[in-house]
TrEMBL record:
Protein's UniProt name: ATPase
Pfam families: ArsA_ATPase
Coiled coil stretches, renumbered: none
Highest rank taxon of the organism: Bacteria
Highest classification ranks of the organism: Bacteria, Bacillati, Actinomycetota, Actinomycetes, Streptosporangiales
Length: 333
């Protein structure tokens, strides 16, 4: 196994959050592949019941068990787990109360829904508890079972509440197994072994939600990680051309002449084509200017930033490996 030398040395729980539509699950999956490269073993966990991991790896729906789903670059294994709150409740009841059989009967009566209605944070305790248990788990020789765990977490708007489990169950139990369990979870989540990464795209709302989420984490005393800027479009035009287009000084006549010289159009066709292309260039330039502005906003947050390309052919297995390599190249894994 190769030694780690990344921005996140010592981090064993990578929590990935982001506004809907930013590619949060895609980035979590690519990060898991990147972390597993070189012979390591990584667990990728999802907690929202969407079976997003199965879809992105083109697999049947995942059961509530850890199973290998991919081989990472240069060797290494990615395992996946789709956490089911009801099954987590059964494990919890067996672990702390020795009553799994009775617990199964209770779940049929809707005990999970009842418990989470009385104490909304309890469901989060169950799923984060399962994740942090995987972080702590050791084999019979005392070796860590997983080198890292990647959690595909809820969206940015509720990430601080989701992770702040001790506060969430404070009204449910002052003493006893629930309190002890939440404190154990909290000990992992708020430790230097955890980093909460944000996924965004270069648009105003996701960027603002990312900055708000970072501020909420700081207020809650939770460890912020890096910012993954996803679906970045590479400009095919020189900066000088974009600057002229933004200022309205791009000359369609010059473009028409170029089209004629290249034999791509002639006469009035060249002029009409040049006008249409000039408008597309102006729109591209305006978008690039807005994206640069959002980059500047993200730069105000004192966190490492990583840019992942927009995949022309969409996200498939080949695309995931491409993103994983980009993550490794930038030092995030």
């Amino acid at each position: 196994m190769e030694s780690l030398d990344t921005d996140w040395d010592g981090v064993r729980l990578h929590v990935v959050t982001g506004k809907g539509g930013t590619g949060k699950t895609t980035v979590a999956a690519a990060l898991a592949l990147a972390l597993a490269s070189g012979g390591r073993k990584v667990l990728l966990v999802e907690v929202e019941g969407r079976q997003g991991i199965a879809q992105i790896f083109d697999l049947p729906p995942l059961p509530y068990e850890e199973r290998r789903i991919a081989v990472a670059p240069d060797g290494g294994d990615v395992y996946a787990l789709s956490v089911d709150p009801e099954e987590a409740m059964l494990e919890y009841m067996e672990m702390f109360y020795g009553m799994r059989r009775a617990g199964r009967a209770l779940t049929k009566m809707g005990i999970v829904d009842f418990a989470t209605t009385v104490a909304p944070g309890f469901r989060d305790v169950l799923v984060t508890g399962k994740t942090t248990e995987a972080v702590r788990r050791r084999d019979k020789r005392g070796k860590r079972v997983y080198d890292a765990v990647v959690l595909d977490a809820p969206p940015t708007g509720r990430i601080a509440r989701f992770l702040n489990v001790t506060q969430e169950v404070a009204g449910l139990a002052k003493v006893g197994p629930i309190k002890n369990h939440s404190e154990l979870v909290n000990g992992v989540v708020k430790s230097p072994e955890t980093a909460v990464h944000f996924v965004t795209v270069l648009e105003e709302m996701p960027v603002q939600e990312t900055l708000d989420g970072i501020a909420e984490l700081a207020e809650a005393g939770l460890p912020a990680g890096g910012i993954f800027i996803n679906m970045v479009r590479e400009s095919q035009l020189p900066r000088s051309v974009l600057d002229l287009a933004v200022k309205g000084r791009f000359d369609p006549a010059e473009l028409a002449l170029g089209l004629k010289t290249a034999g791509l159009a002639d006469g009035s066709d060249a002029s009409a084509m040049a006008e249409a292309l000039a408008e597309e260039i102006a729109e591209h330039a305006r978008r690039a200017e807005l994206e640069d502005s959002e980059r500047e906003s993200l730069a105000e947050a004192p966190l490492p930033r990583y840019e992942l390309p927009l995949l022309a052919d969409g996200v498939d297995l080949a695309g995931l490996y491409e993103l994983a390599e980009t993550i490794r190249t930038q030092g995030a894994a």
